Amino acid sequence: MALGTAVRRRILHICIAAGLATAGCAGQIRPALTPTPRSEALLILPGFGYGRGAEQTLRALAPEVAAAGLDLYVPSYISRGGLNRSRDRLRDLIREQRLERYDRLHVFAFIAGGWSFNPLAQQPGLPNLATVVYDRSPLQERAARMATDHLHFLTWIRYGTPVFDLARTPYPPFAGSGVRVALLVETRPTPFVRKRAAAARKYGPFEFDCDSFAQPHDDCAFVDLNHDQMYRRFADVLPEVLTFIRTGRFSSAAVREPPATDPLADEGAR
User: What's the count of helices (H) and strands (E) in the chain, helices before strands?
Assistant: First the structure.
């Protein structure tokens, strides 16, 4: 039975309100003022998975980051207006926080963070950029295309246009002189991708090889996490990020072999 106009309108209003509330629930993280400012900073650039739980996880890690000698910044910059608008907001936030005053700036970029940050990093204004660690995933990087192709309207309600921009924008690789670059590659699918395994496969084979991400790098490692878990369990990832910041390499314990099997080829994915 078809829904009446009033009922459909009510459902739409609820969806929009829920989507906007969820999108805005995560705030920025920045260090408290201290008598002696630290000389280095870690800028974490979240993407579409950044919600209140992720904010709480990252905020709880601020003391550990501080103990390693870095100020922690996590900006909330993703704009419903699109990827370009998000990039503009990120540029403004970097200027407002005066991140250029640090001797060394280190960046960890979640997937949308890389798409947003890389064009900025190629421009003047961050002469202190020392390290960039990228979160990459041949699985999750298809999510934007899947959402655009199969859930277009609901995606717009939840996020606005940046997901669509990400789906149609090729990855803009960063190649900065004197900047150390690393990749941490997720090897597990999120529930969103797992439930849509057939759609995910239509975009071609999953390429986990480090060189398949079109990003020059100094080191690359694989993590047994999906994209949601990268936020919730960032405490598991942080030691490797700090090791790379200090040494230019991940630790000897890091996994450097890609998965040997298709992560969607199990009973739960069929």
Answer: 12, 6
From CA 181, how far away is CA 217, in angstroms rounded? 5
pTM for the model: 0.88
Over the chain (270 residues), the average pLDDT of each successive run of 10 is 46 40 61 74 94 93 95 95 96 94 97 96 88 97 95 92 95 93 97 95 94 97 97 97 98 96 66
3-state SS assignment for residue 186? strand
Residues 6+ apart with CB under 8 A from 20: none
Q: Are 178 and 129 in contact (CB under 8 A)?
A: no
Tell me how far apart the alpha carbons of residues 160 and 20 are, in angstroms, rounded to a whole number: 9
Q: How is residue 74 written in tokens?
A: 């996590």
Rounded Cα gap, residues 132 and 120, in angstroms: 13
CB count, 10 Å around CB of 153? 9
Give me the CATH topology for the region 32-258: Rossmann fold (3.40.50)
Ranges of each domain in the chain: 32-258
